[in-house]
Amino acid sequence: MQKVTTTKRQFEIIQAAGKILISSGINGLTTKNLAIEMGFTESALYRHFKCKHDIIAAMLNYLADNMQQRFDKIITKSQTPKDNLTALFNSQFDFFSDNPYFVIAVLSDGLMQESETINQCIKSLMAIKSKHLIAIINQGQTQGIFTQNITVKQTVHLIMGSFRLLILKWRMDDFTFNIKLYGNQTIQTLLTLLEKL
Question: How far apart are CA 4 and CA 9, in angstroms?
Answer without folding.
Answer: 14
